[in-house]
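In this supplementary section we document a worked example of the pipeline. Step one takes a protein sequence of length 347 as its only input; no multiple sequence alignment statistics are reported here. Step two produces a three-dimensional model, which step three serialises into structure tokens for compact storage. The input and output of this example are shown verbatim.
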Amino acid sequence: MSLYVRCRFTEILLNMPYVTSLFARKMVAAAGTAIDPKATLAPVGIDHDAPWDPKHMIPAVAYYDMLEAMAEVVDVTELPVHVGASMRCDDYGALGLAWKAAPTLYGSCSRIERYARLWTDVVTYELREHPRGTLFVLHRAGERRLGLRLSNEATLASAVSLSREVCPVPFAPVEVFAQHNGPKSKAFHEEWFGCPVTFDADFDAVLISRQAMERPNKLGDEGISRYLTLHLDAELADFQSAPPLVAEAKDAIAQALNEGGPRMADVAKGLGLSARSFHRRLSEHGLSFQTLTEETRRELAEGLLRDAQYSLIDIAFLTGFSEQSSFTRAFKRWLGVTPASYRKSNS
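The serialised model returned by step three reads:
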């Protein structure tokens, strides 16, 4: 494999942000019987019948693709708000506990601003002062496609849902802002949020009054909060200093795809691990070697199809297929369209 192709593979893999499978599962559950849950979750690498595992991460682009496919079947106007409304602190593990144990809502939001990197590499948060209170701002890079917009709405709604969980009195924001175009009617959104909702705004954010931010949380506990903060600080330090195992593994898998197929023992050895330790470490991320290999193939195929210099035959070979027809069948199974159709719609 040429140096250029190796660098291109690494670039594609490192630019693949991930989200927790929890949101995908909740979106599908909220859609009800109008869609087939198994068929909807399978292309993003989720087994509908397997236990829910928030640590099982899926590529953000695959998640957005899934939401857009759902939008072709059901009305998704209210869907992200229903999903955000269903979120609870306990869904977020230690980070959710830190939200609950913070002494005030401002403290809760500060925990998310600092530690959200432990949960996702797609979204960052910012607390910003405003004449009418404090903005809890959501930053998410990328094309403002439908899937991303729906995901942003669900995230804003989840912030309000978590605030209502810890607030000792009924909670409503001062205003909610979204950068994208709004639905024909904002009535449902404004009724659920309990405040004006402004679309086509300059940012995505929830505006919270200073009174609400300073009010003690009903489950706030200084001692537990300090303990959790120390725990999260240690986890964040480990996260920032340790090389990302999954990214390194996917890079190794990518290099092996056109050399007879990757073997777990060989990839593990290249990472300085035994096959057993490698399997255990992948399990901690909610992954198996088989699913990681399949994800890597799909992500590389998508990335290479956006690069016009590669023919379909080249991409089939580079992603580990001996024949273009086998690659076409696999790609259609992953995304529901042929490689040629995908390249045409993304050119």
